[in-house]
Here is the input.
Amino acid sequence: MRNPLRTTHFFYKLNTQYSSPLKWHITGDSLLKIISALFASSVLLFLGLMVYELVNGSWLSIQTFGLNFLIGTKWDPAISQVFGALPLILGTTVTSVIALLISVPISLGIGLALSEYMPKKFGFAISFLVELLAAVPSVIYGLWGIYVLIPFLRDHVYLYLRTFFGFIPIFSGPIYGGGFLTASIVLAIMVIPTISSILRDLFSAVPNSLREAMIALGATKWETVKAVVSYARSGVIGAVILGFGRAVGETMAVTMIIGNKFQVWPSSLFDAWYTMSAIIANELLEATYDLYVSALINIALVLLFVTLVINILSRLIVWRSIRLVRGIVKE
Amino acid sequence: MVVPKIKVENLNAWFGKKHVLKNINMEIKENTVTAIIGPSGCGKTTFLRCLNRMHEIIPGARVSGKVIFNGINIYDKGVDPVIIRKKIGMVFQKPNPFPMMSIYDNVAIGLKLNGVRDKKALDTAVRQSLELVNLWDEVKDDLNRSGANLSGGQQQRLCIARALAVEPEVLLMDEPCSALDPISTAKIEALIRRLTENYTIVIVTHNIQQAARISDYTAFFYLGELIEYGPTKQIFENPKHELTRKYIMGEFG
Amino acid sequence: MRKLDHYKFRVFKDHIMRFLVYLSLVLVLIPLFSILYEVVKRGISVISLDFFIKPTPTVGEEGGIANAIQGTFITIGLASLIGVPIGLMSGIFLSEYNEHKLSVIVRFFNDVLSGIPSIVIGVFIYTLIVRSIGFSVIAAAFALAIIMIPIVTRTTEEALKLVPLSLREAAIALGLPRWKIIPTIVLRSARKTVVTGILLSIARIAGESAPILVTMGYWRWWFAGLDRPVANLALNVFIFATSPFESWRALAWGSALVLILIILGINIAVRIIMREKSW
Here is the structure.
């Protein structure tokens, strides 16, 4: 019997040669590789171009002020045309640090609840809700902050704090409701999803043998959990740094809440302040002359530099620790 | 003397530093079924995958030696593995139809992606391939349904049809029945016998009885080496090597 | 006796910590529900049919957010047109040429790029594009595309890596070259997850306002060409949040509601798609 399939020659030309006649497959494969590699490299192009453009754009400011830009405390576009960013750098740093002080313990709690305490099925729903919190746009946090959080904090928290602790300077002074403490609280809510989801993944990657060993020693749940956290501690640090990076760059919600007051140091926790990102959002469109624009781009450059360092650092730590944790699983 | 369909010369294979195939020499004759047997981990699957250059797709895997197919060493420079795999098809241990495709597309995809646009030609090929594996009558009304809904035995026959549709000359089968029930296994074994009319088949099996039932030639592998190779009848009735005898008697593995 | 007391203390501490862990869940859910509740409550009270068919009002006029909805969709559409192909191809490269040295570098800097604040990306596009062609929807689209690329890249890579090896092997054994296997077999198997990633990146850029502000500025009219700005929902929220007129503040809440619904809708859709995954 003849092969019925091989009689149907109208399929495609039978190649008696085994090397590609037109080199089509080889070219097709390498073409896909080259094209996808080019697209993939665009990330490097964007980052490189970003650094170049921002350095280029802030060149005038760098030439004019040099390092004084970072330690100058005066921002006077109207008369003397002097720009110093120290108050902004302080405002950004302090609000972000306070945000972390609030969000890290809560994120640890959430990470542990999802990886250690809750049944998987229920944890799935909670994860979804936490992710939803990350999906809420920054401006909506700002809007909610202005109309819901500020009145609440002013009437139910800040007034009492001042009444009872007013003798301590940081709890005295006028209460607007907005201000840098409120901004920090909103920032804290915004970075919780970032930190907690990394922590959840990190803790889940910790090998079960560690938990079993602790339980076998007669440890309580909390003692077991403590061992898990300490096992993954370098990753926890990475996650915290990453959260700091998010908080530093956050713009709209902060702009709407912090009060946008250019000063080196606030008089109390209830005082207004300013951040790097907020001043760009507020003034870039209104900057009327080159040096002014250049100073604002210079701030963006500082922000880029800070977030680049933070990200590279934290990614390295998180990557390494997850690999470390997983590597030990294998052995 | 018949020219062998595939001639293996000094074939060695590695996974990283692990030497999994050692100096294999073997001739596979046209229109026969050759069974590869041996305990697990003896390199039989690796050997099979070396015959159509599937071994090298695993990162860290390496091959040396020659596999001469139709007079051409498939490991020669300039030989396109893609064309080799079209000529030497493969069926896997676990049925793996493409789950997102219909039954029709599962069979036709090889031709479609090789540039066959003619609807009639595709229809004919799909029908002939499915008839060849005795699946046509069972699925002809459900050609547009997903292949994932078929039973395990049907899925495996679908995979064989998919491999046949691209017109291979050799079919490599890697324990094709290990995931199937006895009835499906019997159907596939009958199918394999029938296919020898037009195809050369190399089948890896861990089931010694299966090798005895369906193969013309049997090769026994042990720890990466080819211990014994010859007509099935001789291997089973009068093995030359002590290891072969022990394995066939079920004394180890 | 002392030993027992110590044990009691440990158990007590265990209970306290369990309580605190669950408390943290409650603490994080309060703002979420408060935001959803307030936006829906205040948003619903201001919307009407007019609200969806009229553009931004001028002083003393009644108006709506129709132009902002139009503008948001145009901006997102353009951004996706730029960002999705780049993200898809990058994801394919990272997953299919995993062993390549470039993959490691790209994967790392892709993560780094996703951590750059959106305002910085906005200023970058401001210096790169706005200063030569002016505030425009095309500039905004570029900024948003750069934000979405790392997300699409990452999820595409993860999705493609989940495609079982057995499917790839089946395709390879059919004598198909890689460049045909990837778009047909691999991408098609993973298409649900890939689409999910694209949808999530769209949800992310839909709410971005900082880069919109510095690349497009504020615009009260309809779409008027790619080299001109368009209105934007998120920016509406920012601009009108503290405006002196009641009817303008309504624009902020209405825009916020529509935004939240879009983003919530996408997130829920993604969950539903993922639930019917085939593996």
Notes: The mean pLDDT of chain C is 92. Chain C touches chain A through 88 residues (CB under 8 Å). The first helix of chain C runs from residue 2 to 46.
